[in-house]
Design goal:
This protein is of the alpha/beta class. The chain folds into 3 domains: 45 residues, no CATH class; 130 residues, 2-Layer Sandwich (Nucleotidyltransferase, domain 5), CATH 3.30.420; 154 residues, ATPase, nucleotide binding domain (Nucleotidyltransferase, domain 5). The chain has 10 helices and 15 strands. The protein has a 5-stranded mixed sheet. It has a 5-stranded mixed sheet with strand order 13-12-11-14-15, with helices on both faces. A 3-stranded antiparallel sheet has the order 1-3-2, covered by helices on one side. Helix 8 packs across helix 9. The longest helix has 24 residues.
C-alpha cells in the first residue's frame, strides 16, 4: 500500500535523490531490485522497511485481552490472547502493561522503535479518548487511559473496540468512502464509516447498532432493554441458542447432519439480514462483516444474507457490497494498533 516507486533519474531530480538517500540512511526505506526497463536505465524499486517502527494494540475483553504488534504495512506479525478477568484495580492494569513490556523486551526493541500502544475496549470513550463513559458489558465506566499509560514509556491511546475494528476494515478497503461495519464479537458491536472516516457522533455512540430493537418482547439485553440486536446476533447469543461453543458449533453445522443447528444458524442470519436491510436504507453503502465470527462465514451464508435483505427491500443490495473481514477475534486490537501507524505515515 505504501510501496514507494522511485526512478533513478537522479541527474534530473537531485533533491529527490538526496531525500531518498537520507531515508535509506535512517533505515526507513530499502532498495529491492529494479523495475522492468521501459527503454532507458532500469528504475530502482524502493520500499519501506516494514519493521522500521512498530505499533502495539491491545483488545480488552471481560475475561481476557488480546495483544498484537503491527508493522508499517499494517501487517500483524504477532498476536496473543491472555486470560485475565477485567477488574478496575491497579494490579490488573499493571498485568496488562507488563505483557506489553515483556513482548518488547523479548524482541529487544529500542524504545524509539515503538510508535505507541493503543487500547481498544468494550466501552464508549469520551471525545478526548481519555475515559470510558459507558461500559455496561465490563462494568468499566470510568476506566482511564492513565490507568494504562502510567506504566508505559510510550504514547498511548484509548478507543471503543468497534471503532478500532472499523479502522482496520477501512485500512483493508481504502477504496470505500462509506460503509456499515457489523462487529460480530462475543458481544455485538458496530460502526459507521462516512467520508472515509469513522463517524463518532456528538455523544460518541454512532454505530452502536447492537442496541437496535428488533423485538420489544425479546430477550433482556445488558443495556436494560429487551430485544436488542445484541441478544440475537452476538457470538454469545449464538452459543446460548446452540448450547455449545462457536468452535464446536460450526464444524457440526457444516456437516449438515443436524436440522436443529441449521435452524439456529438460519435464525441468526435472518435477524442479521433484517438489521442489515434497515441500516442499508439509512446508509446506502457496503456492509462489512467483521470480528470473531467473520472467518466462519461461507459464500453460501453471504448469498443467503443478500437474498433475505433484498426479499423485502425496495432497493437491492448488490452481493458484492457485502464484505467479510479476515482478522477474526484480533480485529479490534489490530485496528487499534493501526492508529499510530497511520499517524506515522502521515507525518513522513
Amino acid at each position: 500500500m505504501y510501496r514507494i516507486q522511485a526512478y533513478s533519474y537522479f541527474h534530473t531530480f537531485g533533491t529527490v535523490s538526496q531525500n531518498l538517500n537520507l531515508l535509506e540512511q535512517e533505515g526507513l526505506i530499502e532498495r529491492n531490485g529494479y523495475f522492468e526497463s521501459t527503454g532507458g536505465r532500469k528504475a530502482n524499486a524502493i520500499q519501506i522497511v516494514s519493521d522500521f517502527r512498530v505499533s502495539i494494540g491491545i483488545g480488552i475483553l471481560k475475561n481476557m485481552f488480546h495483544i498484537t504488534a503491527v508493522d508499517l504495512y499494517g501487517n500483524a506479525f504477532y498476536t496473543d490472547t491472555i486470560p485475565l478477568p477485567y477488574s478496575d484495580t491497579p494490579d490488573y492494569y499493571k498485568q496488562v502493561t507488563d505483557k506489553v513490556k515483556e513482548f518488547i523486551a523479548a524482541k529487544q526493541y529500542d524504545e524509539e522503535k515503538i510508535l505507541g500502544v493503543s487500547i481498544a475496549t468494550q466501552g464508549i470513550t469520551s471525545p478526548d479518548h481519555t475515559t470510558v463513559l459507558y461500559g455496561n458489558i465490563m462494568n468499566n465506566a470510568g476506566m482511564k487511559l492513565d490507568d494504562f499509560s502510567r506504566h508505559l514509556p510510550y504514547p498511548c491511546y484509548l478507543e471503543h473496540d468497534s471503532k478500532s475494528a472499523a479502522f482496520l476494515e477501512l485500512w483493508n478497503h481504502p477504496e470505500l468512502d462509506s460503509a456499515v461495519v457489523f462487529l460480530l464479537n462475543r458481544n455485538l458491536g458496530g460502526a459507521i464509516i462516512t467520508n472515509h472516516l469513522i463517524h463518532q457522533g456528538s455523544s460518541m455512540h454512532s454505530g452502536t447498532l447492537e442496541h437496535m430493537c428488533i423485538n420489544p418482547d425479546g430477550p433482556l439485553c445488558y443495556c436494560g432493554n429487551r430485544g436488542c440486536l445484541e441478544t440475537y446476533c452476538s457470538a454469545n447469543s449464538l452459543e446460548h441458542a446452540a448450547d455449545m461453543t462457536v468452535k464446536e458449533f460450526f464444524p457440526l453445522l457444516r456437516e449438515k447432519k443436524s436440522p436443529q443447528l441449521t435452524q439456529i444458524w438460519e435464525d441468526y442470519l435472518n435477524h442479521l439480514a433484517f438489521a442489515m436491510k434497515n441500516l442499508n436504507l439509512v446508509i446506502d453503502a457496503p456492509i462489512i462483516i467483521s470480528g470473531y465470527l467473520a472467518p466462519y462465514f461461507t459464500e453460501e451464508d453471504i448469498e443467503y444474507l443478500a437474498e433475505h435483505i433484498n426479499a423485502s427491500s425496495p432497493f437491492a443490495l448488490d452481493r458484492t457490497h457485502i464484505l467479510v473481514g479476515t482478522n477474526g477475534q484480533y480485529t479490534p486490537a489490530i485496528g487499534a494498533a493501526l492508529y499510530y501507524v497511520e499517524k506515522f505515515i502521515q507525518a513522513v
